[in-house]
Design a protein that fits this description.
mainly beta, 15-stranded mixed β-sheet, 1 helix
Length: 251
C-alpha cells in the first residue's frame, strides 16, 4: 500500500514538458541553435491554485555582421504563474558576460538586477514601465500580455533594457514544419531600430520568430512540430478577429 501511495504521489507532482528545437539563421545563412523547454507543474493550493510554468532557453549563435562577427550564448530560466513571474538569464555576448534577474511582484511592479563588468545595479520599475519580459514571450499563456495595450514595454531578459513600441496583430497564417502545416497567429512588435514577428500555435507555443535589426535578419525555425501536452489543461487560443489572414511560405 505504501508503495502505491508513493507512486501516486510522485505522479501527481510530476511535471509535463514540451521541448522545442529551433535552427537559427542570419540573413539566410545557418548560424546557431536554440532550445526552449516548457515545463508544467500541477496547481498548488498553497500557491493560490495556479498552474506554474517553467521556461528554459538555451541559445548559441555565431554569425558575421559586416566586417565583424556577432557571438551570443545564453542560458535563461523563467518561472510564471497567473500571480507573478521571475527569470534569471546568464549571457555571454561578443566575449562579455552578464547576468540579468527580474521579478514581477504581486502589485505588478518589477525588480530588475544586472551584474556585469561594471558591477551590480538594481532598480524597481512601475507596472506602467514594463508590460512583460522577453521570457514571457516564450510562455504559452504569459505572451498574451503583449496584446493588452496597442503599445508594449518589453523587458529584455538578456540585457535588462526595456524596449517600448507598438504591437500589431498580424492575423492568422499557416506554417510549414517538417512537412506538416500548422495554423499560427502572428504578432508584430517594433522598438527603436528592431522589428520582430512572433508566430504562436493554437496552444500558445512559440513556433517561429524573426527579428530585423541594423539591416540583418535573424530567423528561428522549428526542426520538428511541437509535442502535445499529455496531461493538465490546454488553453486553446481561438484565432480570428483583427488582422489579415495570410499564408506563410516555408522558412
Amino acid at each position: 500500500m505504501s508503495t502505491l501511495l508513493l507512486l501516486a504521489s510522485s505522479l501527481a507532482f510530476a511535471a509535463d514538458e514540451q521541448l522545442l528545437r529551433f535552427g537559427l539563421s542570419v540573413d539566410g545563412t545557418p548560424a546557431g541553435s536554440r532550445e526552449i523547454r516548457v515545463r508544467y507543474l500541477p496547481p498548488d493550493p498553497e500557491l493560490g491554485g495556479f498552474e506554474t510554468r517553467i521556461v528554459e532557453s538555451v541559445m548559441k549563435i555565431d554569425a558575421p555582421m559586416g566586417a565583424s562577427r556577432w557571438t551570443h550564448t545564453h542560458r535563461c530560466n523563467g518561472r510564471s504563474t497567473d500571480a507573478g513571474s521571475s527569470f534569471t538569464c546568464a549571457v555571454k555576448e561578443n566575449g562579455a558576460s552578464r547576468e540579468v534577474q527580474g521579478r514581477r511582484n504581486k502589485d505588478l511592479t518589477w525588480t530588475v538586477t544586472v551584474v556585469d563588468a561594471k558591477g551590480r545595479t538594481s532598480r524597481d520599475l512601475r507596472s506602467s514601465e514594463v508590460s512583460l519580459s522577453s521570457m514571457d514571450l516564450l510562455d504559452p499563456t504569459a505572451y498574451l500580455r503583449l496584446l493588452d495595450q496597442p503599445e508594449a514595454a518589453l523587458l529584455s531578459a538578456e540585457s535588462g533594457v526595456v524596449l517600448r513600441g507598438p504591437v500589431r496583430d498580424l492575423g492568422e497564417s499557416t506554417l510549414q514544419i517538417a512537412g506538416q502545416t500548422l495554423p499560427v497567429r502572428r504578432l508584430g512588435f517594433s522598438a527603436e531600430s528592431t522589428t520582430s514577428t512572433f508566430s504562436y500555435g493554437l496552444d500558445g507555443l512559440l513556433l517561429a520568430y524573426e527579428m530585423v535589426a541594423a539591416g540583418h535578419t535573424v530567423r528561428a525555425t522549428l526542426t520538428q512540430p511541437p509535442p502535445a501536452r499529455d496531461f493538465g489543461d490546454v488553453m486553446v487560443i481561438p484565432f480570428g478577429g483583427e488582422g489579415t489572414s495570410v499564408t506563410e511560405t516555408p522558412l
